[in-house]
Amino acid sequence: MVWLGACSQALTPLVILDEGSVDHTVYIEKVLPVAKKFGAKMLGGDWTFQQNNAPAHKQHLTQEWCRRNLPSFISKERWPANSQDFNPLDYCIWNDLVQAMDWRKVTTKLTLITELKRAVKKLRLKVVVQNVEIISGKVEII
Hints:
Blueprint: E1 2-3, E2 15-16, H1 24-43, H2 55-58, H3 60-69, H4 88-100, H5 109-122, H6 125-136
Antiparallel strand pairs: 1-2
Helix pairs in contact: 1-3, 4-5, 4-6
């Protein structure tokens, strides 16, 4: 699993979980602290965390961790799972990331991880900002 966070300021570092499955425990221990750290670093104390309805995200202990540790988050009851209007990473930024990769270099898990990290650095901040602003209501979707 690869996790990447986005806000109107920047992207978080990639979190690559390449050993075993990702359940709520792994998600809470490995991913959420990165979201918390970089959310605070990029946005201060006034931001809202969004997830989709992946099993690890909607698990009650994950939801409780978010309630206790993040300034604000959208609970599983209030967020649609698969809407391109609400998930810019799933529908736009991941697409740009995949297109920025040199797939000829990907021959092993290690080269895939290396290429993912390289491609993230090539993503244009303008694309990230534009897509985050669309979901935050600052840009009208036509």
